[in-house]
Here is the input.
Amino acid sequence: MPPSADGASVVIDIVSPVTLLIEDLEITGGHGCVGGAVRAAVLTVCDPTGITAVPVDLTLRRVDIHDHTYDMGGGAVGITQGSTLLVEESNIYHNEGHGVYSLAADVHCVGRTDGRFGIWGNVKNGVYMQLADSADHTISGQDCDFGDGDDDNGNFDMSFLDLMNQDYGEDATFTCSSANLACL
Here is the structure.
């Protein structure tokens, strides 16, 4: 059985700074304000004023994260300021909110062209980044699947606080910067 919550709590809750590798795992059934499956934040209330950043270097390797619910648009994975998320040969899909909610944390997705690996089929955005400071933050993909047609993300594949939105599709390679709101 995959790790699962009761639909009312976060499955993996990271509350201290750490470098963490989660690999070869399926995570289902979580619920949270900022990350139902995996959350790197301390919450006092369920709104942006109640988020305390927990800086982490988090790698998800060969992980399937799906069927999570949310409050406040939170998404399946929530990561905060001072952090980096690497989604490597993993899938974040079919979640009620965003696939990834980032509060000014860098997000990188690395897949392969010989299979499906990426952030797709989520009800809201694939990656939604809220900007909390003036530093440059990036969202990037290398052969990362963001869905196409019936399995596309509901709003956009990536969004910087709705200031810049992009859609990609299968096996996408790109780098987007918050400093100039542009993608290459």
In short: The mean pLDDT is 89. The chain has no helices and 19 strands. Residues 12-183 form one domain.
